[in-house]
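1st attempt posting a full record on here, be nice pls
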Amino acid sequence: MSDWNRRRFLAAALAGSAPAAPAPALAIAHSKTSPSDARRIAEEARRLTRAALAALGGMARFTGKGQNVFIKPNISWDRRPEQAACTNPDVVAALVEMCFEAGAAKVVVSDNPCVTAEKSFARSGIREAAERAGARCYPMDERRFRRMAIPGARVVRQWEIYPEAIEAGCLINVAIVKQHSLCRAALGMKNLMGVCGGARNRFHQDIGRAVADISGFVRPRLVVLDAIRVLTANGPTGGNLADVQRRDTIAAGVDQVAVDAFGATLLGIKPSDVSYVAEGHARGLGTMDFQALSPAQVEA
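the predicted structure (as tokens):
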């Protein structure tokens, strides 16, 4: 009620026009149980994704009638969903469904994988799930990348970026939480390397500042973290089921630094230990102090 005095608030309330509470910047949905069979895990992933978005104010906060939506999951590796190297396909499908429910005209699901696209798109289960939900799902075409200037960049001042990702009416970044041998954690900001073409291994020379450069330029409207399963070791490729743990959690928000800061805690590390999270915080791209945002907590 900061800009409403008591009299104005009472008058507005009586007239049915009192200001609504602002929508939260971060929502965390968690399940009390951890189902073991595949069907119930899929149901949990969809339920928690919807619960997190509902707590944020619903998908209509991010997209609407007639808009084109670009969803960027992690489809980088030739791995099954149980191996937790790629985004959970049911999380992706739930986002696609909600976009259409909000009135989106077209939803594209795409990535620029690190392995043969046909293998990763099929084995991850994402292509099948996304297309069943009504999206178009395809790997990025290397001929379509366009070299763009990155304003304010420290190390990646120009790069080949996929134009469809940044020109869409709404960009949704949906990453899985996993350990990364180079930068401690692969989270949302790191997932945006997948809208880049060219020799991305050059980013590894200064990964923290490079990822901050890209994420500060691309700036998704919505960030979703899939922590149904978490890869705790031997990332980013994984492969060994012994490295996978269940967290049964979905986080979603508008502050990509805060979302990733929370994601780091799911791996048992401090947000400041993830170089690009610390760099993003220092640049004002968001806050590492995700608790200061008073995240909405949901059990579903």
